[in-house]
Amino acid sequence: MKVLYAASEALPFAASGGLADVAGSLPAALRKKKVNCRVIMPLYGTISDELRSTMTFITSIMVPVSWRRQYCGIFEAKANGVTYYLLDNEYYFKRNMLYGHYDDGERFAFFARAVLEVLPYIDFKPDIIHCNDWQTALIPVYYSTFYAAKEGYTGIKTVFTIHNIQYQGIYGSEILGDVFGLGEEHISLVDFGGNINLMKGAIECAHKVTTVSNTYAQEILDPWFSHGLHPILKDRSSKLSGILNGIDVDGYNPETDKNIFYNYSAKDFSGKAKNKAALQELFGLPVKPDTPVISIISRLVSHKGFDLVKRILYDLVDSSDVQVIILGSGDWEYEAFFKEIAARYPDKVGLRLGFIPDMARKIYAGSDLFLMPSKSEPCGLSQMVALRYGTLPIVRETGGLKDTITDSGDGKGNGFTFKSYDAFDMLNAIQRAIAAYNDKDLRKVLVERALKCDNSWGKSAKEYISLYNSIL
Ligand code: GLC
Question: Distance (Å, rounded) from C-alpha 441 to C-alpha 433?
Answer without folding.
Answer: 14
